[in-house]
Design a protein that fits this description.
The chain is of the alpha/beta class. It is 25% helix and 19% strand. The protein contains 12 helices and 18 strands. The strands form 4 sheets. Strands 9-8-7-6-10-1-11-12-2-13 form a 10-stranded mixed sheet, with helices on both faces. A 4-stranded antiparallel sheet has the order 15-16-17-18, with helices on one face. A hairpin with a 4-residue loop joins strand 15 and strand 16. Helix 5 packs parallel to helix 8. The longest helix is centred in the middle third of the chain and has 28 residues. The radius of gyration is 21 Å and the shape is globular. The N terminus is likely disordered.
Length: 477
């Protein structure tokens, strides 16, 4: 049975039976490199177990495939134009090469103005905790986190300085990912009777790929990893010395603006890069295993919802592009899994496209909390509980990028437009149109052709309406 707003009612928890919630957000992992998404080379047994016991969304996307924009959307349930007012990452450079954001008073937030997920959960009795990467503004305590432990510098896995509750605690030994995993376990070992929300953010497989344990860097041979067909242009794989160096060293090399004098390893190419990306993905999977072991050891597994996803994907050479931020499958497709076998049966959703703005309303719905009117995402709980194959008239998800592209992704198609320089007007109303069933690698753009015109017109109208009715936040300069 569902209510008038499409939310599941019969099994909705009461305030005294609210589930614990853990959101595991890794960085730059596209869906194609997870075992449960039909990759038979990658080894991700713990993520695959979540999928096998939970609800996996076959089609899930980042609403803006770049770190800060996607993470802000997750915590607010709003598109990045509405919650932060800009479409990319923003920070000011400090003298030591790190980046920072201006501080604002707690009650005077010019961005992320509306109540965020931790604030909503805290208001109904949840303990709220952040452990791991924080690439969001404002600071964690300003949007409702009771406790936070996060690395000060983005994109390095050793020599990392951590911030605990707004105070630098110095450089930690070893790999920051291990330090964070241990902090998660210590928290689970001491959790009290209050329901808790844990936002656990794991930095890999985001670069730097070389700043990782040898066992993971060497876990996969370059010859065994599959290369997507759209990485080949005229039979050639991409080679980009600058991007390869960024993938290997990132902050340790690129963010400090050091001269490009370091040499790539002999014979290094896309296959070697992909093999390292696979290894760091298995590194992430092992941390998921440590999390689940901690929940089980403390008797928390049955009453804890675990959500696993990534903030965006990685182009990894497809169409000879690297990094992310594009309106293509490699940038936008992410894994999305909801796990809590005690509350719902396992299934795969193939007819509903999930997206990052849906996380907040869905978790509030699953916890029996009324979602605020500010939310722009959708409560997916009817699909998770099996009451519906998809939400009525919302089978697609909207995407925007810092390059000024907007798109709508359905289970079968992607349609995209280009915006003008102001980002307010549509410059090209038919830039991209792909049939992803017939053309999963997006090698045949149907835009401005006579093919599938009815589908194209319907998607264009939805996208046009979304663009002109979704408001912008206007932060100060």
């Amino acid at each position: 049975m569902t209510g008038s707003n499409g939310q599941h009612n019969a099994d909705r928890p009461s305030p005294i039976d609210r589930p614990n919630i853990v959101v595991v957000l890794c960085d730059q992992l596209r869906a194609f490199e997870v075992g449960c998404y039909d990759n038979d080379v990658i080894r991700t047994p713990h993520i695959d177990r979540l999928a096998g016991e939970g609800v996996r969304f076959e089609h899930a996307v980042s609403n803006n495939p770049v770190c800060m924009a996607a993470r802000s959307a997750l915590l607010t349930g709003q598109y990045s134009r509405s919650c932060q007012g800009f479409l990319g990452n923003y920070a000011r450079q400090l003298e030591d090469g790190t980046k920072s954001m201006p501080e604002y008073p707690v009650n005077d937030r010019p961005i992320l103005k509306d109540a965020a997920l931790p604030e909503q959960l805290k208001a109904v009795g949840y303990e709220t905790n952040l452990i791991g990467k924080w690439h969001v503004h404002p600071a964690p305590y300003q949007i409702g986190f009771d406790y936070s432990l996060y690395p000060r510098v983005h994109h390095r896995h050793t020599g990392q300085t951590f911030v605990e509750n707004q105070e630098d605690i110095g450089v930690v030994d070893g790999f920051s990912i291990d330090y964070e995993a241990q902090a998660v376990r210590e928290y689970l070992d001491t959790v009290g009777d209050r329901p808790f929300f844990l936002h656990y953010c794991i930095s890999p497989p985001h670069m730097p790929l070389d700043d990782a344990p040898d066992e993971y860097k060497r876990m996969y041979s370059p010859e065994e990893v599959p290369i997507r067909p759209n990485c080949y242009l005229e039979g050639e794989l991409p080679f980009d010395e600058r991007w390869f160096k960024i993938y290997l060293w990132d902050f340790l090399f690129y963010e400090q603006h050091l001269p490009y004098t370091e040499s790539l390893p002999d014979g290094f190419g896309l296959r070697q890069l992909t093999a390292m990306y696979y290894g760091l993905t298995t590194w992430v999977d092992d941390q998921v295993g440590r999390l689940m072991a901690g929940l089980e050891a403390n008797g928390l597994a049955d009453n804890t919802i675990v959500v696993f996803l990534s903030d965006h994907g990685d182009n990894l050479g497809s169409h000879h592009l690297f990094n992310k931020g594009k309106l293509i499958e490699e940038s936008i497709r992410i894994p999305l899994i909801f796990h809590c076998p005690a509350r719902w049966s396992s299934r795969v959703s193939e007819n509903q496209v999930g997206s990052i703005v849906d996380i907040m309303p869905t978790l509030l719905g699953l916890a029996g909390v009324i979602a605020p009117a500010s939310i722009q995402g959708r409560d997916l709980s009817p699909v998770i509980y099996g009451d519906a194959e998809s939400l009525e008239n919302t089978g697609g998800a909207f995407v925007e990028t810092g390059d000024g592209e907007i798109g709508v992704r359905t289970p079968t198609h992607l349609f995209g437009m280009r915006l003008d320089g102001s980002r307010s007007e549509i410059e090209d109303e038919a830039a991209y149109f792909f049939d992803l069933i017939q053309d999963p690698y997006e090698q045949n753009n149907l835009a401005n052709t006579s093919e599938q015109l009815e589908t194209a017109d319907r998607m264009a109208e939805r996208l046009r309406h979304w663009h002109y009715t979704t408001p912008w936040c206007r932060p100060p300069d």
